[in-house]
Amino acid sequence: MPFESLGGLAAVAGLLGLCVGSFLNVVIHRLPKMMEQEWQAQCADLRGETPSTAATLSLARPRSRCPSCGQQITVLENIPLLSYLLLRGKCSNCAAPISPRYPVIEAITALLSAYAAWHFGPTLQAAGALILLWALIALTAIDYDTQLLPDSITLPLLWFGLAFNLVNTYADLPSAVIGAMLGYLTLWSVFWLFKLATGKEGMGYGDFKLLAALCAWLGWQMLPVIILLSSVVGAIVGIGLIVLRRHGRNTPIPFGPYLAAAGVIALFWGAQLTRSYLGLMA
């Protein structure tokens, strides 16, 4: 495909990524609160109590507001990246600072979306890569904030991976199914070995499901690459945080962001990394 056409496709995907990134900010902020609201309702039901009459939170309602003054955010104040720059990172009503995470998430989503379109071209692989990348961005931020990897994202992501590979988009279907099984069982085994040895839980079940989903997309062949990359990055970051005293030795560090980062690397360069590794071993 001509370079100019790829550039145009990447630009369109980047603009789409900006809009999706804005929505992902809503998902990252609200989904854990929605889960907590649902758990509280279930606990109240089990206790035989009357459910709370508070308005049910959803991804669409209520409209976004400034957390400091409660002013509703207008359409013009919600333009990805541009609004943050024009407002100089502050609420237009009370001048409270707006978290820089919002434009960062939007920019990362746009850049990764544009690169996916440029890398894969106008193919089914590009469409699938966008879905995978958007889900991984949301999971990374949610896990970083709450140490939760919601089933409402990880489980559909797994099934989407198997669905795309019905036509061998990233791997053949047997490799995808085996990958999903091996991905889950690998971390499940590590979890129980660590628990039996120490009496502590080293990771959550969401990590099992996320690795299963990644291998459902990319096939079991990418499992060693994802495990190695996520472990190396996680170890480096974890040691760095301890050295900088931003985390105590007993403070848990979410593993989901490192799995997600490894999944992104494997999506774009996994085959090359595997060939390079096998070449070195030979």
List keywords for this structure.
282 residues; mainly alpha; single chain; globular
Describe what this molecule looks like in 3D.
68% of the residues lie in helices and 0% in strands. It is mainly α and 282 residues long. α1 (3-46) packs across α3 (101-120). The longest helix is centred in the N-terminal third of the chain and has 44 residues, at 3-46. The chain is globular, with a radius of gyration of 21 Å.
List the helices and strands and how they pair.
Elements: H1 3-46, H2 82-86, H3 101-120, H4 124-146, H5 151-164, H6 173-198, H7 205-218, H8 223-243, H9 256-281
How many H/I helical runs?
A: 9
Could you tell me the number of beta strands?
Answer: 0
Mean pLDDT: 88
Run of helices and strands: HHHHHHHHH
Largest sheet report: none
The value of Rg in angstroms is: 21 Å
Low-confidence stretches: none
Beta-strand portion reads under 5%
Structural class by SSE content:
mainly alpha
Specify the overall morphology.
Answer: globular
Helix-residue proportion? 55-70%
Measured between the Cα atoms of the first and last residue, the distance is 35 Å
Q: What is the gist of this entry?
A:
With 282 residues, the protein is mostly helical. The protein has helices at residues 3-46, 82-86, 101-120, 124-146, 151-164, 173-198, 205-218, 223-243, 256-281.
